[in-house]
Amino acid sequence: MKEISKSVEDIEIEAKKILEEAKANANEILFKAREEAKEILSAQMPMDGVETECQEIVRKANMEAAKKDKGAARKASEIRANADRKIDETVKYIVDIIIGRG
């Protein structure tokens, strides 16, 4: 039973790690987009369309960050669902052994 708890804990830790990595990636994407936007704004060029381009870069970065965050959340959810299924299977196996069906 301790092994099951340890396995579930390991899965939960892995799911948290995946979410943290996704958030870090999202923050990095947003940081890079802001830096790129600052570079564009500080460059000496005609200002026509620069603000629009800046907004588009930030919009795309936000979309990409949201996709990565959703993907990580989905993966973490799948890991948790698999853990629950494995726990149920293990409990059934143990019960079958105890009652002599195993």
What does this structure look like?
There is one protein chain. This protein is an all-alpha fold. The chain contains two helices and no strands. Helix 1 runs antiparallel to helix 2. The mean pLDDT is 84.
How many structural domains?
A: 1
Overall outline: rod-shaped
Radius of gyration: 23 Å
Q: Estimate percent helicity.
A: over 70%
Total DSSP helices: 2
Strand % is under 5%
Low-confidence stretches: none
**Overall pLDDT:** 84
In this structure, how is the largest beta sheet organized? none
Q: What structural class do helix, strand and pairing data support?
A: mainly alpha
Instruction: List SSEs in N-to-C order.
Output: HH
Salient structural properties:
single chain, 102 residues, mainly alpha, 0% strand
